[in-house]
Amino acid sequence: RRRRRRRRHAFAYLDARRVIAIDEEAIQDGAVVWPLSEGKLRDACREIESEQERVRENEDDMDDFDAEEEEDESSPAVSLHLVVTGYVASNTDGVATTLGRDGSDYSAAVMGKLLRSSLISIWTDVDGVLSADPRRVPRAHVIPDVSYNEAMELAYFGAKVIHPKTMTPAISSDPQIPIYIRNTFNPTFRGSRIYLSSTTTTTTDTDRRVCGFSSVERVALINVEGTGLVGVQGIARRLFGALESAGVSVALISQASSEHSITFAAAADRSSEARKAIEEEFAKELDLNYITSVDVRSPCSIVAAVGDGMSGTAGVAGRFFAALGDAKINVLAVSQGCSERNISAVVRGEDSTRALRAVHAAFRLSRTTVYVGVVGMGELGRSLLRLLEGQRSTLRETFDVDLRVRAVAQDGTREELVALVRRRSGGDASSSADSITSAAYDAATGAGVVSAAADPSEEDDGIAALIPGDVSSISRHVRADEVAHSVIFDCTAEERVGRLHPSWLDSDVHVVTANNTALSGPRKLRRDVRRAECARGKLSAQYLREVTVGGGLPIVSTMRDLLGSGDEIQRVDGILSVSWSYILHRIAPPMGTGGATAAAADDDCEGDLTTPPLSSPESRPRRHNDGTPRCTFSEAVREAVELGLMEVDPVKDLSFEYTARCLMVLAKELGLDDDLEDVENILTSNPSPAARRRRRTKNDDDDDSKEEDEDEDEDDATYADRVDALMKERVERAASDGRVPRQVSSIDVKTNSIEIRIVDVPSDHVFAITPPSNECVRFFTARHRQYPLIVQGPSAGIDSTASALLAELLRLMRSKVGPRSGSLSRTRSSAVLA
Question: N or C: which end of the chain has fewer CB within 10 A?
């Protein structure tokens, strides 16, 4: 029988000074003399093997073998493992020396090449090569595969996991040797492999063409400018020769094709020496004004995007600079080589962290973080807070957007608000969070004792606490230098809060509002909003107002689309108040089941309010279609309040104020609000028949004053009975003609008139059959003349309005972050990317 010899393991110590030989005069930190080192390694290995052989001859291992069995000599008997010292070496004269910075890792790479290893593992304290500095970009992740070139770029730009010279032996080997970056404290993790290929070149996802971002901090940007540089040979040689003589290393160079200036970046602490050397070299040119200035700007940072996949991929540079622009970061200088492997931008030092986070998220290497503030914790605010909490994980996965609620204000009158504050050292870690939830808000305000969920992976977590500060201070809690986008949701109907909208926009905070008091307020306030949302052009904070008219219905956006596409809007009319829609539908339901007509009655686009009825008065039902008996006007108002269809102050609905404000918003979109001082202009000319309106003017006579005094003395019950009787008479009179009363609001562009009226419309008219608590808006345009474009649907409901507010923000963020690669599909009720 043949028996394989049992493998034995032997370990031997090897002093690197016996093997690694460097030429100290070749370059800085020396260069390995490979032929000499290989010869020394062969000699050292022969000595070690001889020593190991003598040890084996002295061992008695006859008991380990069966005497009757024949050994298989083809199987190695001993595996020799070398334990080699790092960092040290010898020069060509045999004198001990060191390998300089990161010498230990370099020793491993040198020995890997000398021993012709199949791989080199560098054990460190991180899981591998990261896509960014995790201390500054919390969502930085490990890159599985990195090419040598990418690793070189990242290492130069501050990635401290591996030094560029460590890779030189692996690259120069034949065949080349892969390098693995592993974590000593997480030995089961694969880590990153640095080899020939990269994740950016093997992926099919065009969003992942950049493997990572890095930065060089504390640099100075030096600009040499003047007409004497144009077309003059030798200028660059003299410039950089002077810097070399001064011992100044250049990190980045940028020069326009006009040759009028040369810009370069160097270490900030050497900027004085650099400037002095340049001024001495070009003293004559400076005296003759051929060179006009030598400017130094410090401190600055270089932010670099690295990836082999960028080469030949269109749009990478555009996305990179668009992300910086959206983050309100000014780029001071740009540099890119023809290899397209690196794009470098110089920014101000204080913008470095925000720049890294912005570009990291733009290429979907992490999620775009948005700090959120919520003003108004009524039913709408609470619904929105629950929605933000419930949809957060879905938005992370689907849109790569992380919405974090940082501050919540109860209303516009309180002197305190709930905000995330830093957790004190030694506090309860279980109460830390990176976003305020409804439970955390209740706990902070004393309504409950529930700990907020924590996300320990984030660096900027805290605890929700009630702190001093009114609603005007909320922007300070949602605005942060490290986050590119901040937003405030206004869920109130308060004029005091509306007056703060321009200041929030001026603070670079997006505003998503259901509060239309700013757009329908005094002329000065409307102009301030317009100025703030246009102050910085495309970089201005966005003012999202879709929900101010029609709740969740796309009324404002439809109007903008029509105008933007070159159409001419001639008239807009419809039902804009869900409360009046419900009330009038309850006291005067539509007759019959005839179809609706929406065509214009004449060429002036007056609408079809006078169209003959298609059903007879006898067909008028005494009950609703669902069998519910009719009720009085006051009873219908009470039902609307109980259903949450009215404003917090029902008088704003009954007096037409809410409807007038909606019309002001639409008039502003049409450019017709310049002649309107405020909403009172509309209310004065369109009085409501269902609310007491006391208008005192200097020209009022005594009889009018007496009538007003009598009206003031009338109690609520008597007033309600009088209105019920008036509305009953109005309904019966309309029914006799086959009509029903409806509140109809209109804007006539040709006559520049705005009206709110209770109109008797045919019972089969689209306004008559619009379901209760629904809105219906018609657009008569040059292209939609005979048959208007109609937007109709339910706009009431707290949850639907909250969803519309969130949808506004998501549309904005998708335009900022950019479309994600893949096709949009639907799984159950959630939109996901396939």
Answer: N
